[in-house]
Amino acid sequence: MAKDLYRDSALGALLRNPLPQRVVQWFFLLALAALIYSAWGQERLPGIDDPFPLIYTHATTLLFWVVWFMGIVLAAPLAGRLWCGVCPLGYLSDRLGRIGLNVKWPGGAFKYLPVLAVFAIGVGAALFFDAHKSPHMTAVLVGASTLVAAVTGLIWKRSIFCGRLCPVGLVLSLYSRHAPLKVGVHDEERCQSCTKRDCASRKGQWRRWDSGTLVLHKKTFSSGCPVALDPPTMDNNQCLLCLECVRNCPHANLGLFAGRAPHATLHPLTSSAALLLPLLAGLVALALVRTWPALRDAVAPGTYPEVWVWALWFGAVLPLAILLPAPLAAWLGERTSGKSVGWPPPENELNPGPPLPTAGTEAGAGTEGGAFRRSAFSRFAGRIFAPFAGLVLGGHAALALVKLNAKAAYLPYLFYDPLGASTYQAIHIAETLKLPDLVIPLAVVKYLAFALLAFGTFLGLKETGWAWFGKNTGRNTCKTTEKESADKLGTIALMLALLGFAALLALYGATLYHWLFAGR
Length: 520
Known about the structure:
By secondary structure, the protein is mostly helical.
């Protein structure tokens, strides 16, 4: 049974007051500015041949790529999108959006393609320009993200950065599908009878600023959901856990639940998440296969393939070959089977005209995004890819654990030398400091890594009931407006989905085993 933390006697008082949340957001915002400033121009050390000497000794690269990035991956199965609730860039975008131009974001494919472009730019910068190894390149990426968050907040409605541009939030929406921390509704009937939606709607008011003869009138906005979700019907995976709706509900009918929230449902992946999943699966596979050069060279085209060849092969071609056949088979099956109708068909079926705009409204569109009709292939991909999210999480979490365990021991050195130059020289040149050891012994962490992969596999298999077999599992039902989503997949599509799941699991398991067991 879920517990409403918002109504808890001790924690509830802390959650109801937004001040602690604002203090954390301002702390992270100032810390982000300090990390960008300290890393700008920091890349090489004079007289040292190592091209990236500060990768683990500089505060910016260590905290951003190791502690923060790996930490949120490990925390996602428990905390969900809690990071989004305290993210400094989301806070900046939301606050500027309340005084911005309030322009409506374009619809159609532009709703989800920009976040994939941002994700591709970040991955490309890491793979081909080693941005994760350089403090200066890290500062450029983070600084550019901060600028984008500010500019988009000043131009478009609400926090478009969080809803349409942030790849970290999109990844967390995949990894938090089974997280126990969710915003939920106590009484659905009370929400259905509410017409004002004060919990999520953004209230506008005109303000006046004057200085002598200069007078300025501007409409500003307060409160409201940053990404325009409707709490009673929203996909919880899109919720930022900012608690704006919980605090503003006039009926006190919303809460922050730990455990299975009342009326909780599973949702298919949105279009953007379905497009991201193969890329994310490939990124995890690419990181794992780098530890097994023999397999990498044997599977990739060519005798000794270049870096870009095997990176493209394992990062994109192989994941797409594993994941795409199932939704493609389901789509072809629907296209070739037709629908059973009486004869003669109704007059409106002889000339049906354009589709109704309310059909297939994408989850997460909110009250401002407008209706968006998903294609049949997108609907099938959203269902079939859903169980793969748990498997990819398991592989990514195993990687994150090993990485964090190997490099977290550098953290104490930051108190004495946050810029990292003296620490590097003391370890590698003067040898007055020893190279940091593992936090947890390898004999233990390798079993923990496999346990995380097994846990992610279990989470993925839990979703196959409704996603692939169309079974009603009580509260955990697929909430969607398309009738097709309640039907079983075709036999061929189901077999391809099962084979794809097994193939990806075998790839992750084999490379992880070779890395931590056989390769040692």
